[in-house]
Protein: Inositolphosphotransferase Aur1/Ipt1 domain-containing protein
Organism: Hapsidospora chrysogenum
Amino acid sequence: MTEGDWLGDVPEGGWKATHSWRMPEWVEPIIIILILFPSMYLTRRRNYSIFRSDKSQTYKFLDDVDSTPSPRSSNEFELLPHPGVHPPKTRWLCGLVRIRTPNSSRFARHVHSRILQKFPFLVEMFYWALALGLYRATGALAQLIYGGQRKMWDSAANHGLALLEAEAYFWAGDYEGPERWLEWRIQRWFLHGSEAGDWRVWFLTILNRGYALIHIPGTVGFISYYYATAPTHRRFCTVRRTLTLTNILAFVCFILVPTCPPRLLDEKYGFVDTVNLESAESVWMSGKFVNKLAAFPSMHFGYAFCIGCVFVADSGVVGGLVSKVEKHILRTANSDTFDDDEDEDEVVLAGRSPLARAFMFSFGIWYPCWILLTIVGTANHYFIDALAAVFTVLFAYIFNRSLLVFLPLEDYLLWAWRLEKPVPTTGRTKKLVVD
């Protein structure tokens, strides 16, 4: 079969957008703002004044490593001694060496500290802005490592083709040419339907807009939602650290293994950039600071998979099934007893209504599946990209506490800024009274 035969289904004049939702570029940043700032307000610490300057005010510390503003130690959590006494903190450096770091609680009455205390969600906004800045640097670093833009793009194209051939080894069947790639066949199915004018016209448009709009706003929306609704701040921090470590691992891959997405491969391979074809490209997908070779692993799917896992876990459905198996099959549970040490967040999760649990479980399954169809149907990722993202998230979850190694750095940063980290308003800390 010749190359011309492979692409013989292309309409005369090429594929054309048959439907499009026009949207100004400023809409997407506005969506982010409409998510972040209302979230900042809704998660504020109530009954707390920014400009109060009572010198007798003190912070109360909790027995939770992730719930305290600036604990004296990474292992001890107690009330501060007499106001005005600010002993240094004790931290573990890489889990090996105990070091002393400055205690920034002496700056708790500074105006910028009190603003953070009133709106603690600002801390989350800062760290995610930092992650965005690191992402934007990956393209420049990859270009530096590969010795120029041309060499980087050539290597990225080879990496993309290698992924396609690796997949074809398992499910090419009797197909030849681009048809041996499942991503190609899926996108062609949508394109043919769009050309014919059937319901796939709208479906493809939804996929295009979904790819452009869901990734950043959806993830930011999830962080906002979970900050406000997580049973405990410790649970929120586990999720946040997992997402952060997922980012770091992915950024390393973007730098060391730049990978060209299917839509940017040579036209002879037959993939179509449907998002750009419909002028549905997001402001987050364009510009000189965007890394267009950040296909492996797929952070679209990585975020979606992590979010889906959180919803499934918080639905309590899986935990409930495990409990039933233990009780009725393994017979290891006693229905007449109650474990006084049961984790508080599990108690809260168990209190959700059956309808809410069913919705959360269904959404947790549906969301990553939808994103997988979106990234493949629009030729923005390979299936292996999604698989790599799954392993990246799982690895990040298992080792998420490794990020606590940066606590000493955070202490010094807070000290340099003369700033005290606020008590969060997630879980039981929402009701904490801070004077």
